[in-house]
Fold this protein.
Amino acid sequence: MTEPARHGPLTGLRVVEIGHFVAAPFCTRILGDLGADVIKIEPPEGDPVRQWGEQIDGNSLWWSMHGRNKRSVTLNLKQPRAADIVLKLAETADVVVENFRPGQLARLGLGDDVLRRARPDLVIAHISGYGQDGPYRDRAAFGVIGEAIGGLRHLSDHAPGTSDLPPVRVGVSIGDSLAGLYAAFGIVSAVWQRDRVGGDRKGRTADVALTEAVLSMMEGMLPEYGALGKIRQPTGSRIPTAAPSSAYPSVDGRWILIAANSAPLFSRLSTLIGRADLPGDPKFADNRSRVQNVQELDSIIATWTRQLPVADIERRLNEADIPCTQVYTAAECAADPQFLHRGMVRTVEDRLFGQVLHGGVVPHIPDDPGAIRWPGPAIGEHTDAVLGEILPAEQISVLRREGVI
């Protein structure tokens, strides 16, 4: 028997995604990048993200990457017969991932109990704003809400007293993506426990909340508050526990990150900027002192950086083996030799755009690498092919006439 082509370590895993927007689709994109067969169920009008971001002729460039490695099946879940099709797909699947509000799938006739009658050992991942239970269970939420209630929006802001603008957003849908990452980890953990040698062959449920995914990333914020009553405050570009570590201006209007917060690094930086006396100054003698006097220290460093072009600063810092980088835009990311060498910037053929840049596959597994098999598909591009695996052609035609697919 011929082995199926391998596309990564999850080759052979089948995932049904009943997701929209960012969190669940991000989760399944990761699984698909690593080889899983992802069947994305969309409404006839398609996932709303197909209309997000910059577009060419009404087609989202983000979707090319966000929807990649998935087979798109259109299905009107409001039609009573749609649930039967989902259950037939669940029979053949290892995993179902969804990110509706809690209880919505059950109201559509697709609760966990019903799905597991189709396949008892099915792994089901629910991604929602606040989780499947608790007093906030039924509240509406998007990633930005999770970022705010989880503490990130507060800590990603400018330092107190430096700005009266609204708290700063990270710049991407980080709350959704974090939830998707946790869901992917939960899915792989559940499948491992089910399928390993001696595994119990039981289905499991992963319950991932956007709010909790963000809160879990907040380092010492809660321990510090619990033990000391201290509320961690935003510090803008700086790290509150180490110095110097910040962004500094160059003469050509760019920013460069310098992280010289160990004793050897700080000594080398001090010599480089012509201030070899700094490590001997009690105000800067150790990390705690440098953090307490960070305003003065950053001013000294910025006085040096303001005299030089950013490329020159970066060259000198690298020669001194001090961690540093320019603040990259998309243009620098796309041209970076390290990203290109590692396959993290790839040119993908998209039927809508021709050649388009995608981010690569993470994690990188050299012995069994994942792959970008195809970009985000057209709405319902794989409906006939996928349903043809479980239904006769004449039944598919009837479903199409009835508006179910």
